[in-house]
Amino acid sequence: MAIKFKSFFLTLGIFYILIGALGISNMGFFNQNIEYILSTVLFLNGIYHVFYSMTNRKSPYFHWGLVLGEGIIELISVAIILLNTFTSQLFFTSYIGGLLCLKGLILTLGRDNKLTSWENTKAKVKILVIVKGLLHFLFGSLIIVLPLLTDKAVYVVFGWYILFLGIHFLTEEYITNKKSDV
Q1: Residue 138 and residue 58: Cα distance in Å, rounded?
Q2: In contact, 161 and 146? CB cutoff 8 Å
Q3: C-alpha separations of 2 from 23, 30, 67 in Å
Q4: Closest Cα partner for 101 from 69, 147, 134?
Q5: What's the first-to-final CA gap in the chain, in angstroms?
Q6: How many other CB atoms are found less than 10 A from the CB of residue 157?
Q7: Hey, is 53 helix, strand or coil?
Q8: In which residue ranges of the chain is pLDDT below 70?
Q9: How far apart are CA 61 and CA 4, in angstroms?
Q10: Could you tell me how many helices (H) and strands (E) the chain has, helices first?
């Protein structure tokens, strides 16, 4: 199963980097296809989280229920986005921004409690989880605030978010497959 996730991280990282770079360099592309791009990103993340949680159910230091819940929320979000493509941009961006902020808070603050434990987690993996949580929270906050100021900036923020998410997946694949730990 590790080989499948390794190739999945690599493929997903490269795909997100390409889509993010395209969104930053060509705002018209994102402007016309934002629902479909975000639906694809959320769908791939949702599938990943559902399978990742199921394959790591037996680990005593991994709360698979939170990851499964995150995957289900992402898959429900895909349905909401695709079924309501004519909603206003303010509602759409507020929903996605709120979802990203919630994911960021869960990843950043949802550690060392009854549900999860950092005891046997490698230092590099801890850093990756915290960085991913901060990434979600930062971009979620920007996605909520920026449409109130200007509608054009939100497409650039989505592009940067997807680009950084791709870089994070490549980094996660590289760090988790190295033998040594700091």
Answers
A1: 32
A2: no
A3: 31, 33, 17
A4: 134
A5: 25
A6: 23
A7: helix
A8: 1-6, 60-62, 85-90, 110-125, 147-151, 176-182
A9: 22
A10: 6, 0
